[in-house]
Amino acid sequence: MTTRFKKNRKKRGHVSAGHGRIGKHRKHPGGRGNAGGMHHHRILFDKYHPGYFGKEVKDKASKDNAPLIDVTQFGYFKVLGKGSLPADHPVEGQARVEECREED
């Protein structure tokens, strides 16, 4: 669109050029991007994006409910027992060959 047809040309000579005297057209009045989602933009986030904030807590893995990791689907066929995992997070592994180092 050529400059002479733009709305800005129409607004020339009028004091606030359509942006209002009270609110004023200033840089970033609400913050940039998604700023204030937990504070001053709370209503918008709760209304249009429910569940946007927070985490879902996973049940702690127990002996009966340990996640099974099949590494063969990722192209690995041997699992080495080097390293350690936290005691309260048991994990079952599945591979063609499994090695576990005895703890001293």
Topology:
Layout lengths: L6 H5 L30 H7 L19 E3 L7 E2 L12 E3 L2 E2 L6
Parallel strand pairs: 1-3, 2-4
Supply database-style keywords.
10% strand; little secondary structure; two-stranded parallel ribbon; structural constituent of ribosome; 104 residues; 12% helix; Ribosomal_uL15/eL18_sf; 60S ribosomal protein L27a-3; 4 strands; ribonucleoprotein; ribosomal protein
Give the structure's gist in a few sentences:
It is built from two helices and four strands; from the N terminus they run ααββββ. By secondary structure, the chain is mostly loops. The N and C termini lie far apart (78 Å).
Mean pLDDT: 82
- Give the N-to-C terminal Cα separation: 78 Å
Number of strands: 4
* DSSP helical segment count: 2
CA radius of gyration is: 30 Å
Strand order of the largest sheet: 1-3
The largest β sheet comes out as:
2 strands, parallel
Shape: elongated
Helix content: 10-25%
Uncertain residue segments: none
Structural class: little secondary structure
Order of helix and strand elements from N to C terminus: HHEEEE
Q: How much strand content do the residues show?
A: 5-15%
GO molecular function: structural constituent of ribosome
Protein name: 60S ribosomal protein L27a-3
Region (Disordered): 1-38
Family: Belongs to the universal ribosomal protein uL15 family.
What this model shows, in words?
The chain has 104 residues and is low in regular secondary structure. The chain has helices at residues 7-11, 42-48, and strands at 68-70, 78-79, 92-94, 97-98. It is elongated.
